[in-house]
Write a structure and sequence with these properties.
The structure holds two protein chains of two kinds. Chain A is an alpha+beta fold. In chain A, about 40% of the residues lie in helices and about 30% in strands. In chain A, strands 2-3-1-4 form a four-stranded antiparallel β-sheet. The longest helix of chain A is centred in the last third of the chain and has 15 residues. The mean pLDDT of chain A is about 85. By secondary structure, chain B is an alpha+beta fold. Chain B has 20 helices and 22 strands. In chain B, strand 13 and strand 14 form a beta hairpin. Classes of the chains: A alpha+beta, B alpha+beta.
């Protein structure tokens, strides 16, 4: 399942770091963050609950970039 | 210039800090012995402008993600304060924030100018209902609805004209500024602006499947497919910062120890720590990390304003390195429309007469060949009324024209009639004509090259494309004649659609390392080939789902001369990215060396850091300017 989100991320370096961290999460097949477009595309593994995953991603991302936001 | 709220806040903080900085310099000059006052002013300024940096640094430590520029800046500034370098401490923090603010503004502007370039999103549709016209969101319009587009409005959904005549400006889609005329029965794509008349349209697609939505989606997603250069720089940033930090640590500790133990000199701790702090200020890879994606984003945005859609930064890079371009012939280099190119009459008849006869006999046929004959012959006279026409599939037509039996067709038809057609050396398809069993001559019909195709091939060569190959299903003679006209040197003819993939794979094997192969097709029968090539370029993206789907680059208006343009944009974008990398690395390297030697202090370091970023960002912004490419 592929999903696209609008995100808020303030620096290019943090975007890259967040992308790296989120890619390691279980249940995420691949992820791409575009700092320029402020968009994130996530490919979930089968059977993953999206809303819990989004919460988890947000938590991980905010450890690196406290102002990180995910909008549907 | 409009700033976001957070940007305004940052700007205000910077201005306050600068004011405090000025006071600090003044106080230092007038009252040099009041150290405690200097310290208070410096701390106040740093607090105002840099509190966020310290907060982020702390969050990083707490989450075991310490190596970010916030922490480094925090250490450098604290270090400078402890060493009593108050002015430097304030300057480092303030100019670092100036750089951050500039970055944020530049990115915002670039994003805005690209969305302005891609300003094709319709805001409403005028839906025709029983209760008259109502304005609705394009997303809510059902398939087959009737909508009305007034002059000045944007066509919201892909539709068909039911009523009305007008011209449409498709510049935002194709980069082509000449308006396109439409009349009832014509298909219109969403995104075009209606210029003259009111149009009633029946929608053919829902908004999500319409051209506009697909293009917007594509451009938005294009930055997701990151270029190798981008990946290189994020990987580089990952070890660059820790490496500089470790060097800084060694610089602070090793030289004093060596001086003390081996050389029996004073250790000069303060001096070396100062140099180490200078290192930390240079450790931020910001200039590169921001300017590389900014360049690619600009290149993609600029290209789309010229009617060239590039589906990812990586394809921009691939296109820049292409040294082999493979063309599919029909619909790409040629128009895919047949035309009479030459008439070879027997001595007893004139060319016009021969054409007239052939056209009359073929009058009722809708074969493309017949159409081209009729187009060449002009209006058919009453006397030439054909009757009793019947088509012989795969051979031609037999008909009675002006009371005489006329046969128009290929070699096989002539032979079946017991005639011996003249062998003419021609590149195109030959149509023979006979009357009352007498051979009268033949007409050559061929596909015509697109305007600008030869020039495009020529330009590709001038831009360093080494091999230009044409693939076609045509006969060898026809293919070679066309290739010669276009200036293409390598031809693979008489290919079936499946052979094209095999040919392409053979060509891919012969590619030099680091160079790529681009395939250009019309996206109709060549999806597998488009997908197999390093870069698949599809012609005529408008309305053709297959092309948008399979290709990496879409030339929106069928115009082959856009290919060299795309290549120039790609090359320049990549060049800009590398200029930025080289420039930033060079300046940082020089600053690190000067810093280690104690020649450059923190002042130079922070100006170099912010200056490099500003210059790189401005350079990256050039990628967006593609008007004259």
């Amino acid at each position: 399942m592929q999903k696209k989100y609008s995100i808020e991320v303030d620096c290019a370096n943090c975007a890259a770091a967040v992308e790296r961290k989120l890619a390691d999460l279980a249940g995420i097949e691949s992820i791409s963050i575009s700092y320029m477009a402020q968009k994130m595309i996530v490919e979930y593994a089968d059977g993953v609950d999206e809303s819990t995953k989004v919460k988890e991603m947000l938590k991980v991302a905010r450890k690196i970039e406290p102002d990180f936001e995910i909008e549907a | 210039m409009k700033l976001k709220r957070s940007q305004k806040r940052d700007l205000r903080n910077i201005l306050i800090a600068l004011a405090l900085f000025a006071v600090l310099l003044l106080v230092r000059h007038l009252l040099p012995e009041l150290i405690w006052l200097h310290a208070i002013l410096a701390v106040a300024a740093i607090y105002v402008v840099g509190w966020g940096v310290f907060k982020r640094a702390w969050v990083g430590i707490k989450n075991h993600q310490p190596f970010d520029e916030n922490l480094l800046m925090a250490i450098a500034v604290l270090g400078a304060l402890i060493l009593g370098e108050f002015a430097e401490a304030v300057a480092v923090m303030t100019f670092y924030q100036v750089g951050e603010l500039f970055e944020s503004i530049a990115v915002g502007r670039s994003r805005k100018s690209i969305s302005a370039l891609m300003d094709i999103r319709p805001d409403h549709a005028n839906l025709e209902t029983d209760g008259g016209l109502i304005e609705v969101l394009p997303e809510t319009v059902e398939l087959g609805s009737i909508i009305v587009v007034k002059p000045g409005e944007r066509v919201p959904l892909d539709s068909e004209v039911v009523e009305g005549v007008s011209s449409l400006n498709l510049a935002a889609l194709t980069g082509e500024s000449v308006p396109v005329d439409v009349a009832p029965g014509d298909a219109v794509v969403s995104g075009g602006v209606n210029l003259t008349g009111v149009l009633r349209l029946r929608t053919l697609k829902r908004y999500d499947d319409s051209t506009v939505a697909r293009i917007l989606e594509l451009v938005e997603n294009s930055t997701m497919k990151k270029a190798k250069t981008e990946r290189f720089i994020t990987r580089f940033a990952r070890w660059y910062t820790p490496a500089v930090v470790i060097s800084a640590l060694l610089l602070a500790v090793l030289p004093p120890i060596i001086r003390l133990s081996a050389l029996h000199l004073a250790p000069m701790w303060g001096d070396w720590i100062h140099r180490a702090l200078t290192f930390l200020v240079i450790s931020c890879p910001c200039a590169m990390v921001i300017s590389i994606p900014l360049s690619f984003f600009g290149g993609i945005g600029g290209a789309s304003s010229r009617g060239i859609l590039i589906k990812g930064s990586s394809y921009l890079e691939q296109l820049a390195r292409a040294d082999t371009v493979v063309f599919d012939k029909t619909g790409t280099l040629t128009r895919g429309v047949f035309e009479v190119t030459e008439v070879f009459p027997e001595p007893e008849i004139s060319s016009e007469e021969l054409l007239r006869l052939a056209a009359a006999a073929e009058r009722y046929s809708d074969h493309p060949v017949s159409e081209s004959l009729r187009a060449a012959a002009g209006p058919i006279a009453e006397a030439d009324t054909a009757s009793d026409a019947h088509e012989r599939p795969g051979e031609g037509v037999l008909a009675i024209v002006g009371g005489q039996r006329v046969a128009v067709g290929n070699d096989r038809l002539m032979k079946a009639l017991g005639l011996n057609p003249k062998g003419v050396l021609a590149a195109g398809t030959l149509v023979h004509v006979a009357r009352e069993n007498r051979y009268l001559g033949c007409i050559e019909i061929s596909d015509r090259p697109k305007a600008g195709a030869a020039a495009a091939v020529q330009e590709l060569r001038e831009r360093g494309v080494k091999r230009v190959v044409m693939l076609t299903g045509d006969r060898k003679a026809a293919a070679q004649a066309m290739a010669k006209e276009l200036g293409v040197t390598e031809v693979r003819s008489e290919l079936l659609p499946t052979d094209k993939v095999t040919e392409l794979e053979a060509l891919l094997k012969q590619q030099a390392k680091g160079k790529t192969l681009a395939f250009v097709g019309d996206g109709i029968n060549d999806a597998p080939v488009l997908a197999r090539a390093d870069v698949g370029v599809a012609m005529g993206g408008i309305g053709s789902d297959a092309a948008i789907e399979a290709a990496d680059v879409v030339l929106m208006d069928d115009d082959i001369s856009k290919l060299p343009v795309a290549m120039r944009i790609a090359r320049r974008t990549v060049a800009i990215a590398w200029q930025n990398i080289a420039f930033a690395l060079l300046v940082k390297a020089v600053c690190l060396i000067l810093g280690a030697l104690g020649i450059a202090g923190m002042w130079l370091a922070i100006f170099a850091d912010v200056g490099v970023m500003v210059l790189c960002v401005l350079n990256a912004a050039r990628a967006l300017l593609v008007k004259n490419l």
